[in-house]
Q: What sequence folds into this?
């Protein structure tokens, strides 16, 4: 599991160059990620190493990453985002 210092680093990494990504990634990290498995948390850390353009394509354009772990994680993030906004 992530320690407090790692959570703070992740919070900073969720601040991207595109507002559209910030609106998806930050709430997911703050509200959903702490309750998810360590495997998902580690995948999220790795996912944040992707470029803003890749994240935009995957999260907002519906494109799929080649990496199977990223594909699963993108679906989890999308699902949580939709649930949060559809009530």
A:
């Amino acid at each position: 599991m992530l320690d407090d210092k790692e959570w703070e680093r992740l919070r900073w990494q969720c601040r991207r160059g595109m507002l559209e990504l910030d609106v998806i990634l930050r709430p997911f990290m703050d509200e959903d990620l702490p309750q998810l498995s360590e495997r998902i948390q580690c995948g999220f850390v790795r996912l944040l190493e992707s470029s803003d353009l890749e994240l935009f394509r995957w999260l907002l354009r519906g494109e799929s990453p080649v990496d199977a772990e990223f594909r699963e994680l993108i679906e989890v993030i999308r699902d949580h985002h939709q649930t949060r906004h559809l009530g």
User: Anything to note?
Assistant: The chain has one domain: 4-86. The CA atoms of residues 36 and 71 lie 16 Å apart. Residues 68-86 form the longest helix (19 residues).
